[in-house]
Design goal:
alpha/beta; Transcription Regulator spoIIAA; 5 strands; globular
Length: 140
């Protein structure tokens, strides 16, 4: 788990309301959680498949992260549990990157599986995202 900048877990969770993002198209497609939510760091933890059916869930979770994090902070999208990443998911990440840069916030993406690294490698040829091999590195 990422360090939370010296803030206790109770303080970190108390800063923002509880967040629940329910899958739009049934259970199992994409599970979303935001285990760390402070003004300086938001971790978006994803597991499952990111395709046309679940891109809305990804977009919603990224919008929540954009609203929570403050200038100079960081949003980390952990794709460690993602088994499929479609082009619409890449587009969501790029849109979030643009929105976050406008607020002086960094976006980091954890990609440690082949299913995620291959699409991100293709994307990096046209538009670089900050990609990390582990959650600890992305949060450092």
């Amino acid at each position: 788990m990422c360090p939370n900048g010296g803030i206790s877990d109770q303080q970190a969770v108390a800063e923002v309301p509880a967040i629940s993002i329910q899958p739009r198209r049934g259970p199992g497609l994409l599970r979303v959680s935001l285990p760390i939510r402070t003004a300086k760091l938001v971790v978006v933890d994803l597991a499952g498949e990111i395709d046309l059916a679940s891109c809305g869930d990804l977009r919603e979770s990224l919008q929540v992260a954009v609203e929570i994090v403050r200038r100079g902070g960081r949003v980390v999208v952990d794709l460690s549990g993602v088994s499929f990443l479609a082009v619409c998911g890449l587009r969501c990440l790029l849109e979030a990157d643009v929105a976050l840069r406008a607020r002086d916030v960094q976006l980091g993406v954890v990609a440690n599986t082949q299913a995620v690294r291959i699409p991100l490698t293709t994307l990096r040829q046209t538009r670089p995202l900050r990609v990390f091999s582990s959650l600890a590195l992305a949060c450092a």
